Prior knowledge:
The structure is a homotetramer of 343-residue chains. By secondary structure, the first copy, chain A, is an alpha/beta fold. Chain A has helices spanning 14-22, 35-48, 61-72, 86-89, 94-97, 114-123, 149-162, 173-178, 189-192, 222-228, 237-246, 251-272, 292-298, 327-342; strands at 2-3, 54-58, 77-82, 102-105, 107-108, 111-112, 131-138, 165-170, 195-199, 209-213, 277-279, 285-291, 302-303, 305-309, 314-320.
Amino acid sequence: MYSFNSDYSEGACDAILQAMVDTNRKQSVGYGLDEECDKARALIREQLQSDTCDIHFLVGGTQCNQVVISSALRPYEAVIAAKSGHINVHETGAIEASGHKVLVADSEKGKVLPQGIRAVMNEHVDEHMVKPAMVYISNATEIGTVYTKAELKALRDVCDEYGLLLYMDGARLPMALVANDSDLELADLAKYFDVCYLGGTKCGALFGEAVVIFNDALKQNFRFSIKQQGAMLAKGRLLGLQFSVLFEENRYLDLADHAVKMAQKLQEGMEQEGISFFVKTTTNQIFPIFEQKLLEQMAQKFQFQLWEKLDDKRSAVRFVTSWACEEQAVDECLAWLKHYLRA
Amino acid sequence: MYSFNSDYSEGACDAILQAMVDTNRKQSVGYGLDEECDKARALIREQLQSDTCDIHFLVGGTQCNQVVISSALRPYEAVIAAKSGHINVHETGAIEASGHKVLVADSEKGKVLPQGIRAVMNEHVDEHMVKPAMVYISNATEIGTVYTKAELKALRDVCDEYGLLLYMDGARLPMALVANDSDLELADLAKYFDVCYLGGTKCGALFGEAVVIFNDALKQNFRFSIKQQGAMLAKGRLLGLQFSVLFEENRYLDLADHAVKMAQKLQEGMEQEGISFFVKTTTNQIFPIFEQKLLEQMAQKFQFQLWEKLDDKRSAVRFVTSWACEEQAVDECLAWLKHYLRA
Amino acid sequence: MYSFNSDYSEGACDAILQAMVDTNRKQSVGYGLDEECDKARALIREQLQSDTCDIHFLVGGTQCNQVVISSALRPYEAVIAAKSGHINVHETGAIEASGHKVLVADSEKGKVLPQGIRAVMNEHVDEHMVKPAMVYISNATEIGTVYTKAELKALRDVCDEYGLLLYMDGARLPMALVANDSDLELADLAKYFDVCYLGGTKCGALFGEAVVIFNDALKQNFRFSIKQQGAMLAKGRLLGLQFSVLFEENRYLDLADHAVKMAQKLQEGMEQEGISFFVKTTTNQIFPIFEQKLLEQMAQKFQFQLWEKLDDKRSAVRFVTSWACEEQAVDECLAWLKHYLRA
Amino acid sequence: MYSFNSDYSEGACDAILQAMVDTNRKQSVGYGLDEECDKARALIREQLQSDTCDIHFLVGGTQCNQVVISSALRPYEAVIAAKSGHINVHETGAIEASGHKVLVADSEKGKVLPQGIRAVMNEHVDEHMVKPAMVYISNATEIGTVYTKAELKALRDVCDEYGLLLYMDGARLPMALVANDSDLELADLAKYFDVCYLGGTKCGALFGEAVVIFNDALKQNFRFSIKQQGAMLAKGRLLGLQFSVLFEENRYLDLADHAVKMAQKLQEGMEQEGISFFVKTTTNQIFPIFEQKLLEQMAQKFQFQLWEKLDDKRSAVRFVTSWACEEQAVDECLAWLKHYLRA
């Protein structure tokens, strides 16, 4: 049964797998100090148009968030996020486990609002409360929406006003970059963020994320933090190799583009059949609202995820597509739906 | 200028001070293993009508919350609290610093609602999220309200249903016990709570809180937790001595009763003058709403605390009374208000 | 230049790489709940002759140590290790970062001594000191030595006497199992250990370690601990797949056997040339002592690691071999040495 | 039975108790922001001859160590101490609980050696190990010895060489200052230390220690750290009041002087009777070596502490005196010993 459950259901894109096979017996030093990692760093820096950023490769997203945030904050400092922020909900308290409170700011469609940050800052005024020190955003967000450059500029401004760091969780950044309502490019990141990570796991790699540190103050001794949190891969070369492949020949964005196209084809097709949506997105996650009977029938044909029960009769569900998504599966899904609804 | 700022503005009740003077040169073993602490434990157990509870004396409330909660929870477990819960707002992230997330449940007038707990439990279903393991309540709450026995029973039931521990922060417990809308007694605590603490700092002691552990599973090695968090007082005798004095001759409740009477006299007096309230309370904190000009004028005569700006013209303020509150100050405050409003 | 620097210089054994290629586009659920992981668990349980152990796949060794130890201990509990124990030296304080002290017990050739454990237990008697709760050993140790079954039995007995958990870091376990002075087998592990991990990274996998929990008390909610520490791989299938391949056709021990044979050939060859050793080993790490000039000359031909400067003229160095070690490189190394020494 | 068990067996010196009685009903703001605390800060700064140091009053010594060290270090940084250092042995892993490893450096008579620090620094060279960032010393040490200015200068120099912070635990600092082999004065502290604390609990106060921060880099947001660790006393005035009394009329050193005189009288008297010592000291702790029978007989007359069993027949024991020690008890102890030994 074809699965639209997640964007990490398959292995790696062919080019990555081939590169692994080709270099398998090559000896290299460990822990990310090898030539492949250096090559990947150079390729990424070029596309970021940033000569001075530090780049570290980690295995997974929760790991990135935990290492970056705990490395940047003093013990009594807190990080601000949307209620739906991955660090606030789906990391089993990893941030709190490293000692820091996650403060929730008002958000809209999964996006942190500048006035939400202001409100948090106005409430936290003395040493009886935690000291907010960083804003965390996901882009694309956990519900598939994207930030425009104007929105990012507004966040950057409020962060500057209050002396806050701005951090982007880019697990699905490439999908945001290719979204048709996004004007953001890789070369813009240095303008807005102190630190971010570029997701690989969900965009063609077997695993791997690239932490990019723009702010000099956050660079020092970062490798100590990586190692201390068990996040330093012995055969670090594997991470560099994958990111080298992703950042050659526009592969990173091309893979994301396919993922987004598939999801959008699904979304448009469903909409044409009269399906409404929990939230309309422009990336590789879509959130149709299904009547209970439709949900049950389709679940026998395709895998997808229950997102939220809206009432006794209707639920929002989630379909996710990836670089590996087969267009034929998308077509079959829409055909099935068409047939079901017109039956 | 007389201060209604807090219930920890003065020293200790006379009986405590006298006992300190009388026993000052007496030698004793340290760290809470002395005779005075044993005597205090016996007195408290008697009034709790619990032979088997463990009792530990700590210096302050944040310390109690941090030691109790971090001692009870496994690393991935979380504690549920009201948005206004002291651990959620006013302890500089002490709970998160020990690794645990504070989850906010719906509350009403500062009191956690059973359905709020249910909602949190229904949202936390797998290992990608923290595992809620304890409910934290304050009684009296941070805004001066109290729980009835029926409300506590409802919380206990929902905790039993989900396998949650129930913990009461009793920094102002005696004020709750003497409140005219409370049917709770010391002898009831063992029925509802796994663990709680009885506040001393705000009820006649120089400092000190008594942690009471009813649930056997939470008793083991608790002194290790106390010591590890820097919360084991060298001259522990001082804590036992103070609680001995407080739990003799009904002193604990009598002191609270005076505090509550003074606040209630203020509240009634203000109400008679047409003042409205942010929340009406029955304990030793009151929250009148003042017009800006009244606020400024009164602030030149009496100290009190700005609680929340409601709009451009009106603010909720907080007056707190204690065992040491001088009735003459209350009278003068009301007289001044009367004069001001009628001028 | 051929490197004897580490046993993680190359990629994966051919069978693993082939399996990855073959299954690359197969969809699977994430986070280690897939069929490949289940298959690997079954294969490992069979060879451990343990039906009831829990098995979790993690990416790296420091991660395993951190998750296992922090999951097993209460906050005030400590773990006992040899001075040279990986957790004590080479994990950037990962155990302390999760709140636990590492206590050093007397050891011999990298192996914890039962009397060393006794001494630690006799020194830790009350709540002013941490409470030792677990013994950590590495097998093979960090300096290439192995524990006999009699030695493990003696450790188990002293652990039972004091109520301590016994944990084995098996990053190089297969090399210990095939060592000619080891009588330990996979089927023995359940007798000695509460929990251990079987290393994959250093024995043919791209990455991956298998945590095996024998003690029921340590099993509960372990996946929460994995996730909280950022150690839950999205495409968990990759770990199961690799361990499936390793535990088929005796591959795990065969790969280790090659690694050990290569190191032992080096050690014997060097000994025949009159080289003495910092410690004689029976596994895949050897520690010859080189005069400064020899060290410098050989370093121009082969990569190896400086272990410890012994005096102005002599240093202990480390050569490590792996499943991927080319026998030709070993032969060339010995030939070069022979020529050098006789020149 | 008279106790020489500790220097925290009694309450407070008379002047402190009187000041508490005199000011008991005075209202003040909480949390150490009151006038008494400011007065105490001014008095201490004067004697330290430091206008710019920050001073914070905490309740106990473990608390000071935990707040100071965790506030000063980054997560991957470690603190160096003597094996006998209080933080290494007798704080139930409080430092590790806040995430930091305690590294043991070679010491002599409880005093950290400069070459011990060098050795630790030479061993910690990369990100696979913790990064040493601070040296912790106790003065007087845990076994009653003191540092000379030359020794402190040597430590300061090695700290400067390696970029390490130097921190002094001064739980028994006044006893060190009055020791006849000490040339250190309060006015010297700013020269040697980045931060230290001046002990009150063991020198005439009911409780309380004064943290003094000389290094500007450690000053920022220190009150957040205090609060987060549950170490901010509500009635903070009590701490300021006690330190005001101690730092008036040379009381702090006079009280220490009495304590030291009593211990030294005991030590000299015992020596005259032919008793040998585990270590000879010049402060308020002494460590005679008793034959088993003497130990048992004297234990029926006086309380003292078993320090270390030396062999089957002899043990080192500890006698501690304080500001409150009655000279008559010292005389009786010596008289009893004389009688016993000559019987």
